[in-house]
Design brief:
Number of domains: 1
Largest sheet: 2 strands, antiparallel
Number of helices: 6
Radius of gyration: 19 Å
Distance between the termini: 57 Å
Strand content: under 5%
Length: 114
């Protein structure tokens, strides 16, 4: 079986370079620990604005709208998206689900995107 694994490019995990896995785990660890300030210093403040607006009280999919937005932010961040794109993940579906939590018309330049 080991010969077959080696022939197919497989092998023992300790034989492989896990640098990429370690880097990804390092980036994911603050999310897993709930250490949002370690991800981005402004993130706890952004989350508190969403929480104060009621995003944590709105059901969305299989949890809350706030949890969904944080999941989108986390995915974008772990994919290596720029900060601005990751932050858009915190507000992207605001108008889609029509919760009106964030008034995008008040955000400079957003009104001109449509």
């Amino acid at each position: 079986m080991e010969k077959m694994m080696m022939k197919c490019g497989g092998g023992r995990s300790e034989d492989k370079d896990d640098g990429g896995v370690e880097a990804l785990l390092g980036a994911a660890r603050p999310f897993l620990r709930g250490e949002l300030e370690a991800v981005e210093p402004e993130l706890p403040c952004l989350v508190s604005v969403l929480r104060a607006a009621g995003a944590g009280e709105c059901y969305h999919k299989h949890g809350t709208f706030l949890a969904h937005l944080l999941d989108v932010y986390r995915i974008l961040r772990l994919w290596g998206a720029p900060d601005a794109v990751s932050r858009c993940g915190l507000a992207y579906s605001n108008s889609y689900v029509n919760l009106g939590i964030i008034n995008l018309g008040l955000v400079e330049g957003v009104a001109n995107l449509s």
